[in-house]
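User: Mind C-alpha cell order:
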Amino acid sequence: ENEVGCPAGFELDAQGEFCMDRDECLDGPNPCSHSCHNAPGHFSCSCPAGFALARDDRNCRDVDECAWDAHLCQEGQHCVNLFGSYHCLPDCRPGFRVAPHGASCEDVDECLEQLDECHYNQICENTPGGHHCSCPRGYRIQSPGLPCLGNRDTQPPWEPGSDPPDVNECLQPAKTCAFQCQNLQGGYRCLCPQGQTLLRDGKTCIPLEQSEQNVTTVSHRGPLVPWLRPRALLPRGSYYAWVSLRRGSGAPSSLGRAWCPAGFIRQNGVCTG
C-alpha cells in the first residue's frame, strides 16, 4: 500500500473516496524507452522487431540475429548484424569485395587503389582477383618490387686497375625518386612528369599550376596497350597517367584526360612517342 492506503499502482480519486488505477505511461516521463502499456496496478514495456527488453524491463537492446540463428543466410553467404536487423552478404574470394548493392562480389582494382607492390617504373595491370606487374617494351622485369631493367642498365664486368664501375642507384630496392630515376656517372637525378616540378629534397614531385590547354586526351591504337597507374591528382579533376603507347594502325580510342609523359609529345590531342 502507498501513503494514502491504496495498493501499489493505484491512487485516490479526486473525491478521495476510492482507489483508481494510476496510468504510469501518461503520469510523468515515459518509463519505457520505446512503447509503454498501462494495466491495472502496473505497466509493461515492449520493443520493436529486432530488439528485446534489457534486464531492467524498460530499455530496449539490439538482438544479434546472427548469433541466435546460424542458418539465417544461404550457403555462400555470411550474416552481418545490424542495429535492429541483419543482412546476408556474399562470401567474396581474395581480391574481391562486396559490391555497393550488397548482392554480389566485385573485383578490387589494386592498381587504381595503389594496393599493389609494383615498382614505380613498372606497369600495374589489374586482373580478376589480382594484378600483374610488367615493364614497358624494351625493358625486362626483375621482380614486383624492383625497377625494370633496360639495355643501358647492364653493367660490364670490372677489371682490376681500371676505374670501378658506376653504381646504378636507380636499381636499388629503395624507391629513391618519387617518379623517375635517371642514373648518372657517379650519381643519379630524379625526374618529374610534365606538369610537375621537383622539390628541394631532390626526390619529390608536386603539380604545377596548369592551364586547360596543357591537358590532353591520351589515346592508343591497340586494346591491349596498358596504362600505368595514376600518380597525382591535378587541377580540375584530371590526373597524370604514364602510358605505354604502341605504334601501329587503327583508329585511336580515347582513354581519358591526362598529361603526356616524358618522351612523348602531344599531336592533335594524342600522346605519341
